[in-house]
Structure prediction request, 597 residues.
Amino acid sequence: MMIIYSLDLIGTVAFAISGALSAADKKFDWFGATFAAFVTAVGGGSVRDIFIGNVPVSWLGDMNYLIAILIGVLITLLFKPIVMKWKKTLFLFDTIGIGVFTIIGLQKALSFGIHPAMAAIMGMFSAVLGGIIRDTLCNDIPLIFKKEIYAIACLIGAGFYLILNYWLVSDAITIPVSMLMIILIRLTSVNFNLSLPRL
Amino acid sequence: MMIIYSLDLIGTVAFAISGALSAADKKFDWFGATFAAFVTAVGGGSVRDIFIGNVPVSWLGDMNYLIAILIGVLITLLFKPIVMKWKKTLFLFDTIGIGVFTIIGLQKALSFGIHPAMAAIMGMFSAVLGGIIRDTLCNDIPLIFKKEIYAIACLIGAGFYLILNYWLVSDAITIPVSMLMIILIRLTSVNFNLSLPRL
Amino acid sequence: MMIIYSLDLIGTVAFAISGALSAADKKFDWFGATFAAFVTAVGGGSVRDIFIGNVPVSWLGDMNYLIAILIGVLITLLFKPIVMKWKKTLFLFDTIGIGVFTIIGLQKALSFGIHPAMAAIMGMFSAVLGGIIRDTLCNDIPLIFKKEIYAIACLIGAGFYLILNYWLVSDAITIPVSMLMIILIRLTSVNFNLSLPRL
Prediction:
C-alpha cells in the first residue's frame, strides 16, 4: 500500500500544479493560486468524503496532502517556464493521479457500504470533481464537459476493478490492473484525439 | 407513500431532462450532459442531506434515482426535437417535481430535529439548489435570482404544510394540499408572468 | 463569550449586506438578493462545519443567524443609498466579521480534534469562503484571488492564536488579541493598498 500512498501524493502534487497553472493564466495572486491548487487537489476527494459520510474529510487528518499541495505551488512558482515545457511529464503525472484517485475513492466508498455502482461513481467523482470546481471558480465552463475521454476512463477502470473483485481476484492484481486501465484509456484517447459525441 | 415516491422519481426525470437540455445548449458531450442532468436532479437533495447530517446522501442508497436520471438523459438524447415541442408537458412535470421535492425535503429535515422555519428553508433548498448549481457550472447567472416566482412558491407551500401540521391535520391531507399549493402558485405566476421586484 | 456572540451576529449582518449589495449590482430580485446575502453570511461556516463533521450545520440550530441575515437584507433594501455612503462603516463591520469568524471557526475545528495547522485553515475558510461562493454564483472571479490582503490576515491571526494558546495564555487575552491582529492587518493593508504578488 506504500506504493499507492506515494502515487496518491504524486498525483496530489500534479493536480496542485495544474490548479496553480490555471491560476497563473487568470492572473491570481499567491493566495488565489494556492487556493486553486488546493481545490483541484482535494476538491474531488472532499466531495466524495462528504457524500459517503467520511468526516472529518480525509485530508484534514493527514498533513502530507497539504505539504504535497504546497510543493506543487512552489514548483509552479519557481519553475513556471520549465513546468510549461514539461507539459508531457505533468500530463503523465496527472493521468497517474486520476487512476490512483479513482481506485482509492472507489475502495473508500465500498468500505462505507455504498452500492458498487454508486461506489464507481464516487471513485470517478474523486478524480474529476477537483478540476470541475477549479474551472467553475476560475469562471470557465469545465473542459471535461466538452472534450476528451476522462471521466469515462475512470468509470471503465472502476467497473473493471469491481468485476475482478467480484471474481475474488487478489487486490495485489486488481488494484494495479484497474489503475493501469484508466491510465492507458486516457493516454490512448489523448494520443488519438478521441472524444465523446455531443448531445 | 407509493404515490409520493413515484412523483419523486417523475420529478427526478423532469429535472434530469432540464439539466440535459441546458447541456445541449452549451454543446456539452454525453458525459457533460449526464453530469448536468445529475446535479440538477440530485444537487438540491444532496446539499439538504449534507446540511442536516443525513449521510451517506439519500440517492447513494437508492439505485432508482440514478436510473431515473439516465432515463431523463436518454429521453433528451433520443427525442430532443420532440422534447423541445413538449415544453409545456416538461414544465408541468418540473413543477410537480418542485412541489414534491420541497415537501419531502421539509419532512426529512423535520425528522432530523431541525427547527420548522429552518426545515422550510431546507425543503426549498431541495427544490431549487440543483438548478442553481447547474446554472453555475454552465457559467450562467441562475435565472431564479432574477425572474419568476419559484423559491417563494416552495416557501409558501412549506409554510402551509407546517401550519396544517401544527393543527394536527392528517398527513394524508397535509401533504397533497401543500404540494398542490406550490404547483398552483408556480403555474399561476408563470401564466400571468408574475415576478418579484428587484432589490 | 456574550461579546463574541454579539460580534459574530454583527459580522453576519455586515456579510449579509455585502452579499445583498453584490446582488443589487447584478439586478437580482428579492429572492436572489436574500440568497446572495445568505451564502455570503453562512457559506464559509457551513463548509467548515461540513468538513469537520459538525452537522446539522450550526446556523440550522440558531434562529438568530437567519434573523441577522434578514436584517442585513432589509437594511440594504430600505437604506441602499445611505448604505453606499456608509461604505467605510460597512467595511469596518465586515473586517470585524472576518476577525471573529476566523477565531470562532478555528476554535470549533480544534474542539473537533482537528490538527492545529488544519484548524487554522478551517478558521480562514469560515471567514473567506462565503464571499468566494457569492462571487462564483454571481459569475464573477472572486476578487480575493487577485487583490488585497484578506485570507493571509486570517491565517496570521489564527497562527497567533495557536502560539498564545500553546503558551497557555488565557482565552480572555488570546481571543481578543488574535481577532484584533486580523482586523489591524486587514485595515493596514487596505489603507496602504498592499497586495500579494501575482504568481
Notes: Residues 87-111 of chain B form the longest helix (25 residues).
